[in-house]
Amino acid sequence: MADAVKTQIENLKKQIEYHSNRYYNMDAPEITDYEYDMLMQQLKALEKEHPEYVTEDSPTRKVGGTAKREAGVLVRHNVPMLSLNDVFSREEVEQFVYDMQHQLTKPEFVVEYKIDGLSMALRYEEGMLKLAETRGDGINFGEDVTANAKVIRDVKHKLKEPVPYLEVRGEVYMTNEAFEQVNERQELLGKKKFANPRNCAAGTLRQLDTGITKERQLSMFVFNIQQTKGISFETHTEGYEFLKKQGIPVIQDYRVCHTAEEVWEAITAIGENRGNLGYDIDGAVVKLNRYADRELLGNTSKVPRWAIAYKYPPEEKETRVLDIELSVGRTGRITPTAVFEPIRLCGTTVSRATLHNQDYINELGVGIGDTIVVYKSGEIIPKVKQVRKELRPEGTVTFRIPDRCPVCGAKTCREEDTADIKCTSPNCPAQLERHIINFVGRDAMDIKGFGTVYIEQLVKLGYIKDIADIFILKDHRQQLIENGIIGKEKNTDKLLDTIERAKENDAYMLVSGLGIPNVGKNAARTLLKHFGSVESLMEADEEKLTRVPDIGTISAKAIRDFFFDKKNVELIHRLKAYGVNLQNLTEETKGGSLDGMTFVITGTLPGMDRKEAAELIEKNGGKVTGSVSKKTTYLLAGDNAGSKLTKAQDLGIPVLTEEELKQML
To answer: Rounded distance, CA 287 to CA 304, Å?
Structure first.
């Protein structure tokens, strides 16, 4: 029995350490906050019952997170940035209040929002901001993020009063509106979307480009004064009033309470209002107001004894699915959304929840007319938890996303190795901007200077309705100059000249930009080498297509479906009429030093970017693919190589540096 308990504790430790690393260090959690909290509660309960198995390295004894050197210079904390002790019931809240009342004389409590973001401390000397640091390991070191902090609008560079020293701690977060804008931009650029505002805020604060930080519009609330010199405060709320006078945003709508009943009422009010906020919270904080009381109680190695964090339980309710709507994003991805009878959750009325993709629908088994359980788990976004199959009306079936785009009617296709179903038409109005950005990008036609802002304007004003319209923009030259869409005459002519030169590009660049599912630059190059022209490729059936190296049945079907669409055929004919080259111009390199070898490139190379490395490999007869497999000959790896390096090592694939590649050549 003892061995079983010890094994259970060790397994819980491993799970918590894994998920803690995903949350704090990788900004990529795999489970919800509530699920993580429940694992921690299990471990605490077992350790309390079996103290003989408690070790100093237990997650219950440590602050989550580590300081990462790649995020910035490590700095030593002047004041530890500790976690809070989590509680999950009214009884635990009341017990905390009673304990404080037993140990102290008429203690005051402040109840405030617990913002779901990333902790950061700011140090001011003589009223000037000198340093911003992340929590890091919470005890010894954090990361210097001063440059990024200075472009956050809520971070004051200069106080109104030149206090000798002031250190404050706050939470860097992202409003829901800013988060939606960032993810929309990510989708438009074909990049991976962020899972939630907290992950996005954490990743943004830690990265090295301050321009990106400023663009993503991070926000910050200060929730504690860590240390002062030359000024002092008796209470937390007095400190808040001083900070507000300095123009520093502090936690909103905090309440001062004196009894357990008042504290619980404040927690309840926050819970009811959280759905109305423009940002995410993951609980309510209860802390002592008087600094003298805090100093008297002190801290444990992980948490202060004078504060707790109440975590709201997931609220869930049953409702009936009225419809499942389909929307098409800018990448062509079709997203199903359940529309259900309105219900109240966490203080707000909700009537919609995303169903993500067909796999998610199948896993739930949800159909129109079903009774579903919807919940919120400390997050703003409602989610479907389950389907009550025993209440399913007769004739109801699991919903299936149709094989036609709900916007333009074109065929849809499931992307290889993903759960996404996408519209295949480059002419689909819902994804036109994304198609244009992809088409002019470096992995397709490489029309330099054709920025996203220009594309958005040209599409909005009707100058571009499909990719072929790019090549007749010269016909609107005078209007473009007069309206200043691209700029003055010089800038406009420069871009129009670049577009003209792009007509002479190798045909594989055109095919790469058409947006055919599973056909990127490398596949397009292979196809054009094999068929010689876009016209020949258009006429190939699936059998001929599968004879091409690395073109499987899924890709072959996607290519055939694309060119079977009359709109796409018409598009190719227009491109030809506008003078765009449809012929293969690349001479196949045979007998090169890398002939027959397949490379994957990952990480940051010291002397060239990935595109240059790929061109160098291909020039010498090699082939470059995007993912590591048993067919990979070498992995070319630079700094921060990531998962591709791990997979290559697992498969026993040789790993090259840039210098070693050059030696091979």
So the answer is: 9
CA distance 140 to 162: 28
Selecting among 62, 114, 311, 644, the annotated active-site residue is 114
Helices 197-206 & 176-188, crossing angle to 10 degrees?
A: 70
Burial class (CB in 10 A: 0-12, 13-18, 19+), 632: buried
* 165 bridge partner residues: 125, 229
Structure tokens at 581: 């080259």
Greater confidence (345 vs 460) lies with 460
Q: What is the pLDDT of residues 593-647, one digit of tens each?
A: 788 888 999 888 877 877 788 888 887 888 888 788 888 999 998 877 777 888 8
Q: Is the sign of the CA dihedral 430, 434, 437, 443 positive or negative?
A: negative
373 in Cβ contact with 385 (< 8 Å): yes
How confident is the prediction for the chain on average, in pLDDT? 87
Contact in structure between 403 and 412 (CB atoms under 8 Å): yes
Is residue 376 annotated as part of the catalytic site, yes or no?
A: no
pLDDT digits (tens, 9 = 90+) for 166-203: 999 999 999 988 988 888 777 766 677 787 788 888 88
Q: What are phi and psi of 385, to 5 degrees?
A: -90, -45
Task: Note whether 206 and 68 are within 8 A (CB).
Answer: yes
Q: How far apart are CA 311 and CA 37, in angstroms?
A: 9
Q: Give the integer Cα–Cα distance in Å for 112 and 286.
A: 7
* Residues found in the chain: 665
250: β partners: 222
Place of tokens 């765009």: 580
Bridge partners of 636, per DSSP, are: 601, 656
Beta carbons within 8 Å of 466's beta carbon, 6+ residues apart: 426, 427, 432, 571
| Rounded Cα–Cα distance for residues 50 and 31 (Å) | 27
Position 588 scores a pLDDT of: 57
